């Protein structure tokens, strides 16, 4: 069976999405490096700054192996940005949580990401909502079942 033909509009949209993602990651890596962090460490720290998270859930969110998360959390813990604590709901589960220093660093990282904010700032709230819902639909997520709705 022949591969389906992709129309020029679809090709352009895919290329634009790729360009946005590439620019975001480039800026994120630069911001992380300014704090002597890798991009992966910065992403874990940003996630943990929101709330303590079980190690397995971090791996699921970042789509990586749990052993990779263990190494990342170890390095952040050594720097005093993250701590491990038992989950009050299940003491067999370890939660990783940002320390005060980790939350401050995560906030500084977020504030330094101009590209992630500026293009979206040019869109109205309605346009951002439509874009979010379209991206969720592309990913197969039901936009009515997600937080913030």
Automatic annotation (TrEMBL):
It comes from the Bacteria. InterPro entries: HTH_MarR-typ, MarR/SlyA-like, WH-like_DNA-bd_sf, WH_DNA-bd_sf. Pfam families: MarR_2 (PF12802). SMART domains: HTH_MARR. SUPFAM superfamilies: Winged helix' DNA-binding domain. One of its GO terms (biological process) is response to stress. Residues 10-140 form the HTH marR-type domain. One of its GO terms (molecular function) is DNA-binding transcription factor activity. This is MarR family transcriptional regulator. The lineage of its organism: Bacteria, Bacillati, Actinomycetota, Actinomycetes, Kitasatosporales.
């Amino acid at each position: 069976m022949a591969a389906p033909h992709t129309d020029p509009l679809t090709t352009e949209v895919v290329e634009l999405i790729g360009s946005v993602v590439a620019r975001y990651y480039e800026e994120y890596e630069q911001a992380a490096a300014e704090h002597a962090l890798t991009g992966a460490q910065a992403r874990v720290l940003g996630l943990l700054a929101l709330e303590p998270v079980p190690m397995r859930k971090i791996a699921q969110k970042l789509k990586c192996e749990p052993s990779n998360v263990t190494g990342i959390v170890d390095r952040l813990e050594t720097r005093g940005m993250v701590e491990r604590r038992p989950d009050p709901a299940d003491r067999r589960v370890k939660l990783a949580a940002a320390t005060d220093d980790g939350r401050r660093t995560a906030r500084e990282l977020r504030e330094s990401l101009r590209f992630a904010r500026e293009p979206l700032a040019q869109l109205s709230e309605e346009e951002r909502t439509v874009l979010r819902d379209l991206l969720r639909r592309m990913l197969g997520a039901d936009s009515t079942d997600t937080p913030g709705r």
